[in-house]
Amino acid sequence: MIREMTKSDFEAFWPCFETVIQAQETYAFDPKMSFEEAYELWCIMPMKTFVFEENQQILGSYYIKPNAMGPGNHVCNCGYMVTEAARGKGIAKRLCEHSQDQAMTLGFEAMQFNAVVSSNEVAVQLWQKLGFKIIGTIPRAYRHGKLGHVDSYIMYKALRA
């Protein structure tokens, strides 16, 4: 089930969030970020944040927000995280499909991912299967925790003509 995230949901999801940012492999978030800073970033600042829950366990989450303000606010941005134990089970795909439906409901015309780490091949391939195109490469934009400097991609998908 996918539903809006509560603060208690984020508390349950925090170990996953903390593990992801500390790995420094996919998100350009401060690996020393506190729970409150993370909650603000993931749940308060975006328009909406959702969880994927199964058997009373939070297995994944995403947020949706405008990618820019004013004349650019018709394009949205999302971020996704899935717990390590739940990876490879189609949850990210379901979250992304849900986010596209939400984006259209909220009036967005397109979705853009600003910094998909190029070494995150599973995510890059999934986003491409779901219709996203790499529209730009930022050379050496991400300091990967294991690989050093790697490229980041800007990925985009029109949701409406």
From TrEMBL:
GO molecular function, one term: acyltransferase activity, transferring groups other than amino-acyl groups
InterPro entries: Acyl_CoA_acyltransferase (IPR016181), GNAT_dom (IPR000182), Mito_N-acetyltransferase (IPR052742)
Alphabetic keyword roster: Transferase
Name of this chain's protein: Ribosomal-protein-alanine acetyltransferase
Domain (N-acetyltransferase) ranges: 1-160
Provenance organism: Nitrincola nitratireducens
PROSITE patterns registered for this protein in UniProt: GNAT
One Pfam family matching this protein: Acetyltransf_1
